[in-house]
Amino acid sequence: MDHDLANLLRAHGMQVTAQRLAVLRAVRRRPHCTADTVAEEVRAEIGAISRQAVYDALAALTEKGLIRRVQPAGSPSLYDPRVGDNHHHVICRSCGTTVDVDCTVGVAPCLTAADTDFRIDEAEVIFWGTCPRCIAATPAAEA
Question: pTM for the full model?
Fold first, then answer.
């Protein structure tokens, strides 16, 4: 797998480093994770790495389109390994679980903005709700 990831980095014009490989692996293992979670995963795998090095790697990987940064309102950014398709996210208001949701339209941007002369090429949608686990944990009187 490291060979494939190294080739992926090279194909996107990026220098292959142990830090970038570890960050990419962490995001692939833990979809929709925060930068802090990535840092914990990377430290467990390769040892010491600064928070800034993690942020730098996440920014570079995002810029090259190898991962996607999702920015839910009022929450830290999440990093998603699923790129290059037209999918959205649903986030549980109770526990923060985040999952991918395929776009029912299927074609980007899947929404049309009214009254603009912009050429829209993407729409990022975040649905908010309650996940099945949190629903099951809620007493019937509160539901």
Answer: 0.86
